[in-house]
Design a protein that fits this description.
A six-stranded mixed barrel has the order 1-5-2-4-3-6. It has one domain: Beta Barrel (Barwin-like endoglucanases), CATH 2.40.40.10. 10% of the residues lie in helices and 38% in strands.
Length: 103
């Protein structure tokens, strides 16, 4: 558990993500510091119980205390766009394996 924030093309400095995909503000994607690109997680807003499945396509957040950045579309859909941040729980649903790891 921790805080989530949102990011956009403007705040990201463009549409390039760490995965090479274009950042699309309405997409169900997000940024995490350590999870593998492509990992799917459920992000639940603890203030209202709303959740959405998000695919990790970028690195971040860079602000201390934040555990995930999501697109503005996700932030709107789970109800924290206007506040900018929200307490969230992240559940890993599908973890991408490292090629050649045998895992």
């Amino acid at each position: 558990m921790g805080e989530a924030s949102w990011y956009s093309v403007r705040s990201n400095g463009g549409t390039q993500t760490a995965s090479g995909e274009r950042l699309k503000e309405e997409a169900s994607t997000g940024a995490h510091r350590t999870l593998r690109m492509g990992t799917r997680v459920r992000v639940t807003n603890l203030s209202n119980g709303k959740s959405e499945v998000v695919r990790i396509t970028d690195r971040g957040p860079s602000t201390k205390g934040r555990i995930i950045d999501v697109t503005t579309g996700v932030a709107r859909r789970i109800g924290f766009y206007s506040r900018g941040v929200a307490p969230v729980k992240i559940e890993v649903l599908e973890k991408k394996e490292v090629p050649g790891s045998g895992a």
